[in-house]
Sequence to fold (225 residues):
Amino acid sequence: MAPKTEEMRKGPWTEQEDSLLVRFVRLFGERRWDCLAKVSGLNRTGKSCRLRWVNYLHPDLRHGRMTPEEEHLVLDLHAKWGNRWSRIARCLPGRTDNEIKNYWRTHMRRKAQERKTSAYPSSSSSSSSSSSSSSSSCSPPAAAGVVQSEGVKVYSMDEIWDEIAAADSVTGLTAEECGVACPPLPCPKWEDCSESLWKVDDEFKMATGLLPVDDLMLSDFHHSD
DNA sequence: AAATGAGGCAACCGCTATCGG
DNA sequence: GCCGATAGCGGTTGCCTCATT
Fold:
């Protein structure tokens, strides 16, 4: 339902948009993204707002390189659960599913290529990133076993994961343990923010009346790594 | 110093599940 | 029980940056 005369904005977020989004998320909580998007005046979809918040603006997010522990955890959990990125992400506090997904893609693609080249240095018909990215690169270990491609032995992702997991001496963390030990990111629930809804009028004025940006600690979000 | 390619990351898209009326 | 709205998830794409030639 978008009888809008104006197009929704797409593409990279500006600092102003970020600050506005932060204000309104604090106001409304992490719910009603569609409503939030409209009320805030951001010319973005609720979906886009949510994604921006979850993947970048959330104060509890950790940015920067994965630690070796995190890498091991990702490997282990992916071996267990496959491409359940959101599930895996819940076990890595401060990391998002998108981040882990991206990490896995690049990390594993590189490892796979390394392994292929080291095992079969003469195989020049190595799949390019584009071809491998479409469906096979991240697919869960369904097609196990070694694939024969035009006489060339190719490792399946299953095997690759297996070898990597073995080589890296897995952390040994079970799913259950993880579920207990790694609660989701602490975040204000809609109910928790309901009280603020009653103050929306005032706070809305404050927000639209432009609270000082420094009050929002935007430096936390736009930190340079 | 410039051109090219690869890698990394942010954002979008489509689908599915869940919830409320 | 049905339907529409909303939220969440996984896959994919496009852009930017850095390294290499």
